[in-house]
Amino acid sequence: DTGVSQNPRHKITKRGQNVTFRCDPISEHNRLYWYRQTLGQGPEFLTYFQNEAQLEKSRLLSDRFSAERPKGSFSTLEIQRTEQGDSAMYLCASSFGGNGYTFGSGTRLTVV
Amino acid sequence: KNEVEQSPQNLTAQEGEFITINCSYSVGISALHWLQQHPGGGIVSLFMLSSGKKKHGRLIATINIQEKHSSLHITASHPRDSAVYICAVPYSGGGADGLTFGKGTHLIIQP
Q1: Residue B109, Cα to own-chain centre: how many angstroms?
Q2: Is residue A55 less than 8 Å (CB to CB) from chain B?
Q3: Phi, psi of A73 (to 5 degrees)
Q4: Which among A36, A59, B19, B33 is least buried, having the fewest CB atoms inside 10 angstroms?
Q5: Which DSSP state fits A25?
Q6: How far does B99 lie from chain A, in Å, by closest CA?
Q7: How far from chain centre, in Å, is Cα B11?
Q8: How far is residue A80's CA from residue A96's CA, in Å, rounded to a whole number?
Q9: Which of A59, A73, A110, A97 is nearest to B30 (CA)?
Q10: In angstroms, rounded to a whole number, what is the distance separating the alpha carbons of residues B1 and B19?
Q11: Dist. CA A21–CA A8, nearest whole Å
Q12: Mean pLDDT by 10 residues, chain B (111 residues)
């Protein structure tokens, strides 16, 4: 197992375009979390899954953000109609039952 | 919602110095996390602790549950310790529903 993998590492997109990021967690981990981190700030919680069930999505930043984990393995985070304020690092983490977290290297999004 | 405060926000020290970073939180928790983030974004989990003290190499983490306070210490600091150190606690105190993070302490160790 090579840890939590996120793709792409970097994404540059034009304002108004849709983007999708992928996270592959550690295979034994049943929980998967998405966070957003802006410059100089700590990560901010977006949503999380237990297996394929999305247990918390009220903290997603707006209805332009959506996440899926269809088979309880990898997850995708989609941002529709991107805005410049969406530029940030998007981090994924996984855990088994919330006991200890392993983070991915993140996807850095730049909206121009 | 748990609130997390870290201090200092920035710290520059000379190689060999003893480093202390502090973290306070507002809601009782099941465990607290100390994380390290290097330029480029990757976050590494250093400690998860719910009581007392943990030690790993030159790093020591302590927590006082009653006072809702934790400290991260680095002994014999080295330039490779330069990174952002982040304290994180469960969003709602006890559950596994994600973490709330402090803003981080940007540590620079000069040779």
Answers
A1: 16
A2: yes
A3: -115, -100
A4: A59
A5: -
A6: 7
A7: 13
A8: 30
A9: A97
A10: 29
A11: 7
A12: 91 98 90 90 89 96 95 97 94 68 95 95
